[in-house]
Amino acid sequence: MSDADLFCWDAAYLYRVTPAEFTAETDGAWYALCELNGLYETNGDAELFVSPGLMYEAARWTLELSVQVPVWQSLDHRPAAEYLLSVGLRFAW
Questions:
Q1: Does 50 map to a domain?
Q2: Could you tell me if residue 73 is inside a domain?
Q3: Could you list the mean pLDDT of each consecutive 10-residue stretch along the chain, which spans 93 residues?
Q4: Domain that holds residue 41
Q5: Do the domain assignments include residue 22?
Q6: Residue 68 CB contacts under 8 Å (≥ 6 apart), including other chains
Q7: What pLDDT shows up at residue 71?
Q8: pTM for the structure as a whole
Q9: Residue 61, domain member (yes or no)
Q10: Count of the separate structural domains present in the chain
């Protein structure tokens, strides 16, 4: 177990694929997404991933699927990741 502190950061860009216009009557929308995911630990370990994916947004829930691909890794205290699959489900209350 490590005593290192972890700093995570994420940046995302979404592009609505369909529908062309989002109105109050729209049931849902599909988005293409691209994220940058960064990790830095105070023990010196650091990683940067690019994550392309798809997202469906409905009125009360959102489903997202992406693949994290390592762009840069500097790791001494744990194994390097090759590829990661990310699945997310969110609900609006």
A1: yes
A2: yes
A3: 84 94 88 95 92 95 96 84 92 91
A4: 6-17+27-91
A5: no
A6: 37, 49, 50, 51, 81, 83, 84, 85, 86
A7: 94
A8: 0.79
A9: yes
A10: 1
